[in-house]
Amino acid sequence: MQRLYYLDNLKVCLTVLVIMHHAGQAYGEGGEWAYTPSNPAEYMPWIWHFFSTNAAFFMGLYFFISGFFVPRSFDKQGAKLFVQKKLLRLGIPLLIIGAIISILTGKIEIAHMWFVESLLVFCLIYALIRKWVAPINTACSSKPTIIGLLIVALVMGIGSYFIRQVSPQDHWIWPFGIIPLPMEPAHYLQYVMMFILGILAYRFQWLDKMSNGMGFTTLLIGIALAAGNYLRDGGPWNHFVWQWFGIYESLMCVFISFGLIWLFREFVSSTSRFWQWCAAQAYGAYIVHLLLMIALQYAVDGIWMGAFGKFLFIGIVTTIASFGLTWLLRMIPGVKKVL
Fold first, then answer.
1. pLDDT at residue 233, rounded to an integer
2. At what angle do helices 235-243 and 212-230 cross, to 10 degrees?
3. pLDDT tens across 100-159, in order?
């Protein structure tokens, strides 16, 4: 299979978006964060639009891309090697970063590594299923359509709507007691479905079959939904979107995700030494960025840049430092097998 550089490039951009999302959390209503500015003026009331739109799709798209490559890895490596490599690449960073964060906080905590842990669980479940179930027959004319994406988004949205009646957004639980598997039920159905969609997309070659007309239309719908989310500012529209946000968010997730995949497939599919370097460091940058960011936020706490200036400074410097540190770590013998 030819390397899909556009997915590499998309993952790089998603990693940067995650870092920028976290960079803003201390300066707006973005949920619990380990650092609080000493100056109350460093606050951006508008940034919740940025958080809300990002949260609607970026982790779901991460799971989709991860799921897309899982069948190929399993078919090529076999069950034993597949599981060994996932335990090495996902399990070791989870244990190391989880241990560091737990020591610093004085409690069992894995913070942003919930994604790595959930992905590891999904991969192990996939391997278990494949032990008893043959792979899907790819001789199928199935291809993505607007109606198909709409149906998937509505199933996801209706399920999310009912889940949020008992577990609202930003409510995290540990369903297995002392076992550190934190999850946010409000979004977890999205993550599971997007991971499964990624697997199906690989088997049925949906990304190659997606027509330009369909991809462009999907992107426009995704942009319109995101704009609608940014335009919420009180009033009837805000009330309507908030009341049905489980469904609205799921529509954003599916259409923005497939729209971005089409956009990168058509216009960001080439590569260069820079893009290849960034792609090689992207996973490690996600792993290490949180600790670097919080340390930087405390270091510049007393320096006035304005809330927006501080947000940009923290995000950009942490992005560069995270990719650079990953590059240095990968020069250590054996680390490339993990990062």
1. 86
2. 120
3. 999 999 988 899 999 999 999 999 999 999 988 888 776 677 889 999 999 999 999 999
SS3 state of residue 173: strand
The per-residue pLDDT for range 213-257, each reduced to its tens digit, is 999 999 999 999 999 999 998 899 999 999 999 999 999 999 999
Cβ atoms within 10 A of the Cβ of 302, count?
9
Angle at 66 between CA 230 and CA 277, to 5 degrees: 90
Q: What is the largest CA-CA distance in the chain?
A: 62
Q: Residue 251, exposed/middle/buried by CB under 10 A (0-12, 13-18, 19+)? A: buried
Bin 334: left if φ > 0, else alpha if -120 < ψ < 50, else beta.
left
pLDDT at 161: 97
pTM above 0.90, yes or no: yes
Q: Are 215 and 262 in contact (CB under 8 A)?
A: yes
How far apart CA 252 and CA 152 sit, in angstroms, is: 12
